[in-house]
Design goal:
CATH superfamily of the largest domain: Hnrnp arginine n-methyltransferase1
Number of strands: 22
Largest sheet: 6 strands, antiparallel
Helix content: 25-40%
CATH topology of the largest domain: Hnrnp arginine n-methyltransferase1
Mean pLDDT: 86
Radius of gyration: 24 Å
Low-confidence stretches: 93-102
Structural class: alpha+beta
Oligomer: single chain
Shape: globular
């Protein structure tokens, strides 16, 4: 392919949105277009998370090759991703640090989670309370391996640790060896949906709760795991997931990044000598969402008590579609221009974890999704508002808001 040689330094772009349905059913969203992936896509993206030559990338992914035909297919797919702009020649781009935006092969993500002492210690406490000597344990989403190692040290007979990123298993394997538990842990690479276990497990551990709580496919993953991997009376960590909405007033210096506020329009008109009023309807006719530091949202005015949108028993995930309609009463006067989404987890008997803004620590590793309505609501204390919440797998969460 023109412009691509064995020595071309390639790196993946970072504004990718990837939907993984299985190891062979992958969709890449880039620049408004959808590109279909295949069984090589994730390994290639992992290989080129840092700059590598075309030939080095082939070397890093050669474990996928099972013959001449698959070697040709792998080479062709790397070239195809280059042609689509998913992989780029680094000499034409500025260097960037791999962001934490859902890419779990990035060091930054795992550093942030390990620094979240409250999160990690809560899961460890639940494991120590739940895992009994001789248990078979399954972890889905192994990451660094800290939770699998904790289960092994708690007395598990054996731990099966599933991880779908390509880079983490080799580091976790060394971590297990350093901590004396390598012989008790089997790492299985891939999506849990496509993996079979040699035996049923007594305990399932999985921290795959996203910034948008259901966004990492926890419902489908747990439903499949309960059906195929677990013994009838197996324990789950977490056992329950509660999703809340908290109506707030987002500070003006933040909200005007998402809504055409009158003050902002006036400032632009003075600056550019042009009339921007036509854009007011543009933002008011659509809802928005953004992610904010959970700890910092504690300083925003809370206009109602937290609203329980949905409670999920992870032992009984029926499907990945959720709807609820809730009414609540304003406890103070203010402009409702955002709803913070947060979650509570029931990890084990007596062990709970929450990222309620007033409970989250400064080291909290999650960012809260905040729904921003196109039209804000002016509330007085005692006003009744209605929230319609829905979640559909693959489409994410949606809100509708009105005063009644």
């Amino acid at each position: 392919m023109k412009g691509l040689s064995k020595n071309t330094l390639l790196q993946r772009v970072y504004d990718l949105d990837i939907k993984i349905r299985s190891n062979i059913d992958i969709e890449i969203f880039l620049n408004g277009k959808i590109h279909k992936g295949n069984q090589y896509t994730l390994a290639i993206l992992n290989a080129f998370s840092t700059p590598k030559s075309f030939s080095e990338g082939l070397e890093d992914t050669k474990h996928l090759v099972k013959g001449i035909q698959s070697w040709v297919e792998l080479s062709w797919h790397i070239k195809k991703l280059f042609e689509l702009g998913v992989l780029i020649d680094t000499k034409y781009s500025l260097p960037k640090i791999l962001s934490d935006n859902g890419r779990f092969d990035a060091a930054e993500v795992h550093i942030r989670m390990l620094n979240d002492f409250h999160r990690t210690k809560s899961f460890q406490e639940a494991i120590l309370k739940t895992v009994k000597k001789g248990d078979i344990v399954l972890e889905i989403g192994m990451g660094t391996g800290i939770l699998s190692a904790t289960a092994a040290l708690a007395g598990a007979k054996h731990v099966y640790a599933i991880e779908r990123t390509h880079n983490m298993p080799k580091f976790a394997r060394k971590f297990f060896e350093k901590n004396g538990v390598l012989e008790k842990i089997t790492i299985l690479e891939g999506d849990s949906i496509n993996i079979d276990l040699p035996e049923k497990a007594d305990v399932l551990i999985s921290e795959i709760i996203g910034n948008d709580p259901l966004g990492e496919d926890i419902l489908r993953t747990f439903q499949d795991a309960v059906r195929r991997f677990l013994k009838p009376k197996a324990k789950l960590i977490p056992e329950t997931l509660k999703i809340f909405g908290l109506p707030v007033s987002i500070p003006s210096e933040l909200i005007d990044k998402y809504i055409f506020e009158p003050e902002t329009i006036l400032r632009w008109e003075k600056l550019y000598n042009l009339n921007f009023s036509s854009f007011v309807d543009f933002s008011q006719n659509q809802n928005h969402s953004a992610f904010f530091n959970t700890y910092e949202t504690r300083y925003w005015p809370f206009l109602t008590e937290p609203i329980l949108l949905f409670e999920i028993d992870l032992n009984n995930c029926i499907d990945d579609e959720i709807t609820s309609k809730i009414k609540t009463i304003a406890i103070k006067e203010g402009v409702l221009n955002g709803i913070i989404v947060f979650f509570d987890l029931g990890l084990a008997d007596g062990v709970y974890f929450s990222i309620h803004p007033e409970k989250a620590t400064a080291a909290n590793s999650w960012y809260s999704k905040v729904w921003i309505p196109g039209k804000s609501l002016d509330l007085l204390s005692g006003d009744v508002i209605e929230i319609n919440y829905s979640y559909t797998g693959g489409k994410g969460s949606q809100f509708e808001l009105k005063k009644v």
